[in-house]
Each structure stands twice: as C-alpha cells, then as structure tokens.
TrEMBL record:
Pfam families: Rce1-like. GO terms for biological process: CAAX-box protein maturation; proteolysis. The keyword Metal-binding does not apply. It comes from the Bacteria. The keyword Membrane applies. Keywords: Hydrolase, Membrane, Metalloprotease, Protease, Transmembrane, Transmembrane helix. InterPro entries: Rce1/LyrA-like_dom (IPR003675). This is CPBP family intramembrane metalloprotease. Residues 163-249 form the CAAX prenyl protease 2/Lysostaphin resistance protein A-like domain. The chain crosses the membrane at residues 54-74, 81-100, 120-141, 153-177, 200-225, 237-256. One of its GO terms (molecular function) is endopeptidase activity.
Amino acid sequence: MLSEETVIEPVPLLGKKACISCTVLIDSDCKFCNSCGARQTQVQGANTAEKWQLLQQGGVFFGLTLIVCCLAKFVDALQNLTSLIIIDAFLAIGTVAFFATGWQENKRLLHWPNFSIQKLSLYCGIAMAGAFLVHYSVTWLNITIFSKEESYIWGFIGYPYAKVLLIFFTAVTPAIFEELGFRGYLLQILLKVADEQQAVYISAFLFAIIHLSFLSLFWLIPFALFIGYMRVKEHTLWYGIFFHFCFNLTACLFELL
C-alpha cells in the first residue's frame, strides 16, 4: 500500500523525449522540436573542425554580401535602377542558396508556431514607433553634422511607379532577404559555434556593418539585437520579417508624406 508521500515517476515512452521548450513529446534523436522548432541540444555536438567549417561558410556569406553592398554604395556607375535590380536579385538568390544549404534545419524557421495576432500587432507597433524616433534623430544628425538631408526617394525620382519601387526595394526585399540571411542562415550557424547571447550580438554587429553607415550604427545595432532575440525566442523568422517590414515601410511613408 502506497503512503501519501510516495511519488510515482512517469514511465517515459520508448524512443521519445520531452521538448526542452514546449514539453511536447518528440523522437529522442530529434535535434529540433517538430512542434515549436526549438533546438534540443547545445553546441557541444559540433567539434572544433566542424565549428571552423561553419565559420568559414558564414564568412563567405558575409564577405560576398559586404562586397556587393560596397559596390552598390561606392561605384557611381551602379547608381541606377537597372543596377539596383541586378544587385538585389544577386543578393536575394545568394541568400536563398546559402539558406538552402542547411535546409533540413533552416526550414523550421519558416514555420510559425503559436502564431498570435496580438503579439504580431505589438511587434509591428514597436517597429513603427522605433522608425518614427530613428527618422527624426537621423534627420537631425545629418543636418547638424553634414548640413544636408538624405532621402530614399531621390534614387527613384524620374522612374515610372517611383513610389511602388521605393516601397518594394526599401521595405519588402530587405525585410525578407536580410532576415533570411542574417537571422536565418548566419544566426543559425553562430548558434552552433557560440552561446545564444554571443551569437545574437555577433549577427547584429555584422548586420549593422553591411549598411555601411557609421552614423546609423546607434540604431542599427539595437534594431538587429531586438530582432535577433525575437528570432531566438519565437523560433521563427516571421515575426522578425514583419517587424523589419513595418520599420522600413514607416520610413518610406515619411518620404512619401
């Protein structure tokens, strides 16, 4: 007869384990939860050689991205719409190609577990408020330091559907492909070779660098840190994509209005 203090331990199901994040039962050999997408093991599975190989792959992605961004920003011959389309297409195709190299793991980031319209609305509201503050602070700094005011729309003036082009190339494509590349492919690699906090900080710093604007580092790094932690917490890229889109779209609306 069992006493009141006796505790009966549950018998684990053969070949199953509980997810470390959502506690759903999954196969014991799964590295990622089929329900929430959370990674089940820490980085200890990767040895030094594997980590170095992963860092090289991430370095190639970042190096190619940085070179293309430098060409787009500093080569006068590329300051036109045709070049912009070619450059954006090259970056998009390259990002998808790198992301696809780890498709078995990375595809889970395209799932949207526990979708919440309230949470999405909150994130989008934060993005729009942040864009408002950044717009006025950057405008003030540009006028104060450089005695000039920059505008995204200038590069599209004279082309048909200039407003549509502005929103597409400033809000839509960066939100999708920068998140796919930096919070998807690159952060996923860094999580395998460093702890979570280090991975988020490194990916945020690298993301800020490719924008090639020293003046904008004061907001680019916090922006990337917020989305990085969002991606780790939510186990999906979609909240970050919508956050990024709303932030850039708000910046576009300042230009148009």
